[in-house]
Structure formats: C-alpha cells, structure tokens
Known about the structure:
This protein is mainly α.
Amino acid sequence: MARQGISEQQVIEAAEQLLQMGQAVTVSSVREVIGSGSFSTINAWLAKWKETGDRSKPADVPEMPETVARGVRHLWASAWNEAQGGIKAEREALEAARRDMEREQRAMAAEIARLESENAAQAEDFDRVTAALAEKTLALAEADKTASALRVENARLDERAKAAETRAEELRQELERLHTRFQEMAGAPKAAKARKKRGATE
Length: 202
C-alpha cells in the first residue's frame, strides 16, 4: 500500500497545519509542507486520515454578535469610502497625467514635423550646393585644361618668337654686310678714276 519514506504522522501533522492556516488539504499542499514524499504515499495516508472524519473544513464558529457585525460593517464602509476616495484621486491623477502625456505627444509630434521639414530644406540646400560644386569643379577642370593648352601654345609661340628674333638678327647682320659690300663696290670706280687722274698729271 504505502511505501517507506514518510510516516503517517508526518502526513497528519501537515494536514492539520494546513487546516489551521485555512488552506485546502491536497496531496500537493501536504507534500509542500513535508518537503518530500511520493504522491502515492501521501495520498494513501491522507485518505486514511480523512476516513476518521470530515476534516476538510475547520470547526464551526459561533455566529458573530450584531454589535460586532455593525462595527465590522461600519469599519468596512469607512474603508470602502476611503478606498473609493483614493481611487477617485488616483483616477484624477491618472487623467491629469494622461492629458499631460497627450500634450507632450502633440508637442513632440510638432517638433518632429518641424525637424523633418528643416531636414528636408537642408537636404534641398545640400543638393543645390552639391550640384553647384560639381558644376564649378567641371568648370575648373575645363579652365585648367584650357590654361594647360594655352601654356603649351605660349611655349610654342615663345619658341617661334625666339626663332624669329634670331632670324631677324641674322638678316640684319647680313644686310649690314651687304651694305658694306655695296659701299665698297660703289667706291672702287671712283678710286680708280682718281688714281688715273693722278697718274696723268704726273
């Protein structure tokens, strides 16, 4: 029937303790009080204990006197009214808190909308600045390209100018040589005539 482990006395004491505390006497509650034991063993001892009499409920108590009942009712009414007042105050506080929260939510929503609008405007400005920067960058690249071409062309023109100056100098020198030669050739007949004239007179 019952296995060794816990005694009948342990089960009875646990059941009596539960009754005194006004708790239901069950296999689980008895096992919790004892702290060990199999369910089948506890159930067997508990069934035997219940056979001795109806111990599922504590002994009957006498009726409460009317004066005590009136005092209890008065105490209960006072406690209930006080609780209702506390509940009303709590409800009013919760309602005020709810209104404050709604105001804060509306303010936060307005602030979020403002920030989103400001962010959109900043994004548009950023796009415009980015486009202008790209345009200026392209223009700068074109200007650098043109300046580079002009530098190359200027260097080529400088070389041509230097070559032209050198050629002009050479031509001037050649012209001076030709002029000198021309003068020499033009003066030769006169010198010959002069020599002949001096020879005739002698």
